[in-house]
């Protein structure tokens, strides 16, 4: 993508991000803990990254507003409608991933 100008690259990245959000919205059955176990990020991470990106540019974006954008609704609503309790197996896998990261010094 180095052949693209900065504006075009930014537009493509933004379009890909919107597509990712749409994809996650279409697959609400995918739990955040599963994303954390497999990819080490979740919808909440995306929200935090948006806040950080805003801050880097001198803009104000609060976490709850970012989460509402990522989830497509207030987080409390999404959580009550779609978030399942983590299973013991999921919790163990998440803890193992976190421990492995600690060993690597991340």
From TrEMBL:
Instruction: Write down a Pfam family by its short name.
Output: DUF1244
| Highest taxon in the source lineage | Bacteria
**What is the name of this protein?**
SMc04008-like domain-containing protein
Q: Which residues form the SMc04008-like domain?
A: 30-95
């Amino acid at each position: 993508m180095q052949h693209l100008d900065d504006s075009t690259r930014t537009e493509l990245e933004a379009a890909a991000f919107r597509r990712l959000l749409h994809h996650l919205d279409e697959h609400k059955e995918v739990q955040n803990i599963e994303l954390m176990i497999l990819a080490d990020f979740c919808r909440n991470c995306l929200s935090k990254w948006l806040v950080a990106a805003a801050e880097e540019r001198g803009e104000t974006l609060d976490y709850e507003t970012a989460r509402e954008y990522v989830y497509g609704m207030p987080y409390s609503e999404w959580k009550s409608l779609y978030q399942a309790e983590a299973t013991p197996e999921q919790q163990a896998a998440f803890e193992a991933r976190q421990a492995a990261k600690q060993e690597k010094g991340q």
